[in-house]
Amino acid sequence: MTANPPDLRPDLVRARVAETKRDGQPTIGMVSLGCPKALVDSERILTRLRAEGYGISPDYGGADAVIVNTCGFLDSAKAESLEAIGEALAENGRVIVTGCLGAEPDYITGAHPKVLAVTGPHQYEQVLDAVHTAVPPAPDPYIDLLPASGVSLTPRHYSYLKISEGCNHACKFCIIPDMRGKLASRPHKAVMREAERLVEAGVRELLVISQDTSAYGTDWKDRAAKAPIVDLARDLGTLGAWVRLHYVYPYPHVRELIPLMAEGGSGGGVLPYLDIPFQHAHPDTLRRMARPAAAARTLDEIAAWRADCPDLALRSTFIVGYPGETEAEFETLLDWLDEAQLDRVGCFKYENVEGARSNALPDHVPEEVKQDRWERFMEKAQAISEAKLAAKVGRRMEVIVDLVEDDAATCRTMHDAPEIDGCLFIDEGFEDLSPGDIVTVEVDEAGEYDLWGKRL
Description:
globular
């Protein structure tokens, strides 16, 4: 029984593609760091390489070169990226760097001057050019074919579906727009074609991701709909797979998505799940973040969403210890959390990021105060989670199977995204289950973050 299996973490993935290397075939390894959006970039790069005749190596030793797809969102993520590059250099020696940290090539080459090349985020052609230079392709036209479903770094039964790049927000703590640019939405038809191919290949759950999912399509000058995400979600919901929406900003048109969620079920559709990055609740803190300062109205929106879709699960992330955050502001956040009763919550201690405008703000919070507030926040969030999960005991729920081990099947309900939310465990009568199965259970036990259930 394993909660959030570490080998499936989307923020630290090494490509593990089962295939037999042919004689003379050049091979490439991949380390993918950061968010699921970067993971999608890694999958696209590997798919292109496979189509050109390259093999994918599951380890450093078997690769002719290694690509490290980096994260540069936080200073701690930058340090992890540099560490991964150093490890790849030590183990293999031939390393190509791409991803968000690649937007700062001097930062990378200053620490690791022996890397072969550095490219920025979603610069697929430049990565391929670097690979071609380091390891020339040697395709066999009779053997090397583009795999119908591409190369996936996630389990076969779920897949991330990236619908846009970039972001038009100017949050002071974030440098994503500097690294990935302004919002650039993929065409509706292109997203649907990819989704259809994924479902045809056996994907049972589509995890819709972007930097700002609610804003999808608003960069199109000739758009017919005011909120294209609503039409996209509706169309995705017809494919017979679970559709889970991530990174949804609480714009007014989000309420148009709620009826679609109320209709979702085990036969597929838009799940009753919203991942919304609220970040804080005190209006002064939100203003210093350069985010909408309307926490009270947000509570009204949450109440309206739940009235239309009582089974709705809400997940969010928050920052504590933001520059200038007073004890009173933090207490407001705790009180807001009490009222909002969010189902799934993550919390981060603020840290400076090179290039972020928040670095220059006055009154930075001491580390020991950040730690204290993080602990108090998580204590509150844990108590809410424990109470909400206890209320599910006795309920019948549809779950999707992620992993089957000797002692139990690890599953997720419609309210749980992979790797970041809780699990539901079936520890009796699970032997015939396989990853991707969707079955009905009755919840018979609850913990702080996870559930246990029996099959019906």
